[in-house]
Write a structure and sequence with these properties.
This protein is α+β, with helices and mostly antiparallel strands. The chain folds into two domains: about 160 residues, Jelly Rolls (Sandwich), CATH 2.60.120; about 110 residues, Orthogonal Bundle (Arc Repressor Mutant, subunit A). It contains ten helices and eight strands.
């Protein structure tokens, strides 16, 4: 495989900006069941009622059981490893999601994809997603879109509860803006000063905000993001290390090789051989 495939919602589901289905342990091999590594250009939300499922997202395995939820953000490399569960799969185009919800999901899914829900939280979400399904059957798109927005809103509130209240301050706000900018520009912007300029603040202040919120410097996050993408390519494609370096914006192959070894703790080719045996 030369590239990690990206699935576009516009070419699926008859052009609809969302897709919702309830799956059971016996009937789970539907359109959503993809057991090879890929990206989507939309959000995927899995709400598990009972049973067990395992999904991989960017080198981390997530086990889902009753009362659990998983959100996969656009661009994250993922696939299903095992699915013996009952629950809801929602695929939704980002155009249907409010900007503040998108920012929240972008922030939280960078750090954590899974939520373990209380009985009350699960009941609220299950009731709402069931209503969405009924409105789809009644062919009422406006009401369906509003209900999907409410569903996403409840999910963002669930993620928010898993983060300390102290993170909702000026430092955290700037850190979130930096993380979102990094996700969009890591191939072309490699220096802390690039992001400070983008956010109209000084480099020392950006570093202070990011370090206070995450415990790591801006440079650390830039390097980690680049190396994550290079690991994706090493694992899921047969491109050479030199080709990967060039694709990630490094004309100096030797420098990229040293950077990978420093951040990953092993050479790029060692990572590929170790993980692809």
């Amino acid at each position: 495989m030369n590239n990690i495939p990206t699935h576009k919602i516009s070419s699926q589901f008859d052009g609809m900006p969302f897709f919702l289905c309830y799956v059971t342990e016996k009937e789970h091999k539907g359109a959503f069941y993809i057991d090879y590594a890929h990206r989507d250009d939309c959000y995927i939300i899995v709400l598990v009622e009972k049973g067990m499922a395992k999904l991989a997202i960017d080198f981390e395995d997530y086990e889902l059981s009753g009362n659990s939820l998983l959100c996969v953000a656009p661009g994250q490399v993922h696939y299903i490893k095992e699915f013996n569960a009952c629950g809801w799969f929602l695929v939704v185009d980002s155009v249907l999601i409010k900007e503040d919800y998108k920012k929240s999901l972008g922030k939280y899914t960078l750090r954590k994809n899974k939520l373990q829900l209380s009985n009350d939280e699960f009941s609220e979400l299950h009731t709402l997603v069931s209503l969405i399904h009924k409105q789809i059957d009644k062919r009422k798109p406006a009401i369906t879109h509003d209900l999907i927005s409410a569903y996403i809103g409840l999910i963002t509130e669930g993620y928010k509860k898993d983060f300390p209240v102290s993170t909702y301050n000026r430092f955290a706000s700037i850190t979130t803006q930096f993380e979102l900018a990094l996700a969009e520009n890591y191939i072309t912007l490699k220096r802390p000063s690039d992001y400070a300029e983008k956010l109209n603040i000084s480099v020392p202040y950006l570093n202070e905000c990011v370090r206070s919120t995450t415990g790591f410097s801006v440079s650390h996050h830039i390097q980690q993001r680049v190396i994550l993408e290079s690991k994706r390519m090493l694992y899921h494609s047969n491109k050479s290390v030199k080709e990967i370096a060039a694709e990630l914006g490094y004309s100096d192959y030797a420098y990229f090789s040293r950077l990978f070894s420093k951040v990953a703790g092993m050479a790029a080719i060692t990572f590929r051989n170790k993980n692809c045996d």
